[in-house]
Structures are given as structure tokens and as C-alpha cells.
Amino acid sequence: ARLTVMCGGSKEGFERASKLMGCYGKSVQLTGGAGKGQHTKCTNQIILAGNMIGMVEGLMYAHKQGLDPHQIIDIIKVGSAGSFSLGVLGPRILNRDFEPGFYIDHYVKDL
Fold first, then answer.
1. CA-CA to 55 of 20 to 30 Å: which in 27, 34, 72, 93?
2. pTM of the predicted model, to two decimals?
3. Rg of the chain, C-alpha, whole Å
4. Could you read off the pLDDT tens digit of each residue along the chain, which spans 111 residues?
5. What residues pair up with 28 in beta bridges, in sequence order?
6. 37: helix, coil or strand?
7. At a CB cut-off of 8 Å and minimum separation 6, what does 4 contact?
8. How far apart are CA 65 and CA 78, in angstroms?
9. Distance between CA atoms of 65 and 47, rounded to whole angstroms?
10. Which residues are catalytic?
């Protein structure tokens, strides 16, 4: 189980379905009534996009200042600015590996 499942609905419905969702979700959370799960997912997608943009801008800044972006990733990824995007996607970008790991169509679907 790897997914984070964000649910909206009644507590009773959530309790009935949570065991099944636990088969594919490492974290299964009820965030409120009907529709609140979708709003939680939208919040996730907005924050994710901001993190990815910030990562690329930061790496470009480091490069333009003559810093070694690989070293910067190693330093920063263990601190408060660390993220999946920085630790996994950052090195791929620096190595010019632009193979998609997740398609934009899937990102948009989640909005």
C-alpha cells in the first residue's frame, strides 16, 4: 500500500470502507462530509505544484550563483526544505533525465 487516501462522506460509510481502502492506501483519512476528500486532494495538488516550481527555481538560482546543484540537493534535502521532489526529481533534472514519472494528465485529473 502506497497511496494516501483522502475521503469525504459520513463517518459510518468511511468506517465500512476504510478496511478495503487500507489495502491500497498507507494513510486513509476522513476529512469531513461529502466532497471534502476532493477538496483535500486539490489542496495536495496545489502544494505539490508550488513545491516543484520552488525546487526548480531554487536549483536554477544555485546554478546561477556558481554553486554545485548536486551538493545543494544533498545539503538541503535533509532539512526543512527537503521533499520528495527535491530528493528524487531534483537529481533526475540535474542529470537531464526528463522521462516522465507522472503524466500531467494524471495531475490534472486529480484537480
1. 27
2. 0.78
3. 18
4. 689 999 999 999 999 999 999 999 999 999 999 999 999 999 998 998 899 999 999 999 999 999 999 999 999 999 999 998 899 899 999 999 888 777 677 677 766
5. 5
6. helix
7. 25, 26, 27, 29, 44
8. 21
9. 27
10. 41
